[in-house]
Amino acid sequence: MDPDSRLNRILHKLILRSFPNLRRRNITIRWGADDELLYCTVHQEQYVIAVNSCLEKAGRGVLEGGIAHELCHIDADLKLGRYQRQLAWNRYSESYWYRMREERATEWRVVQLGYGAQLLKLIRFARRLGYTFARQHGLSYAEILRAEMLRSQNTPSWSPMCRRHPKT
Q1: How many CA atoms lie within 13 Å of 143's alpha carbon, on the beta-carbon side?
Q2: Is residue 81 in a domain?
Q3: DSSP 3-state assignment of 28?
């Protein structure tokens, strides 16, 4: 099986299942992220997700977790206007705190979409390869595990994004 076709099948399945706003967008995926496991970039309205070749032997769930994370970045990006998008990209590249906040919010979106188990698989696989994760990279393993546990129990306050309003 061609590794690129494997990535493309996973990408298209995730878009069809969970990202309806991205169905008509020009998004490609390829092997070739050198310094990171995965990353997303945009050039002339075409989004490219690059995947590190160390993930070639990873299972489908591992790849789904990483690709869903990048698709959440793209989805959030497209909700911004041109000026706001450029400002967000600048802040992301220049500010540690902005980047950390964005990565954590993105991973909450991944969990909310139902890909928390895949995100956990990605973290476990990456740790076996020697990667380490800190708050700046997103949610901790324990935070994702807890959110998944609460989500599976249909607890309404499983996400910190969920706010309870007092009864009036």
Answers
A1: 16
A2: yes
A3: strand
DSSP 3-state of 116 = helix
How many structural domains comprise the chain? 1
Residue 85 carries which DSSP code? H
Q: Is 126 exposed, middle or buried (0-12, 13-18, 19+ CB in 10 A)?
A: buried
Residue 64: what pLDDT?
A: 98
- Count of C-beta atoms within a 10 Å radius of residue 94: 9
Alpha-carbon gap, residue 14 to 9, rounded angstroms: 9
Residue whose pair of structure tokens reads 């793209």 in the numeric block: 74
Domain that holds residue 135: 3-152
Is residue 158 predicted with pLDDT exceeding 60? no
Q: Residues 133, 124: contact at Cβ < 8 Å?
A: no
Percentage, residues of the chain above pLDDT 90: 73
Distance CA 76, CA 102 (A): 10
- Alpha-carbon distance of 115 to 19, in angstroms, equals 12
Q: The whole model's pTM is what?
A: 0.88
Tell me if residue 164 falls in helix, strand or coil. coil
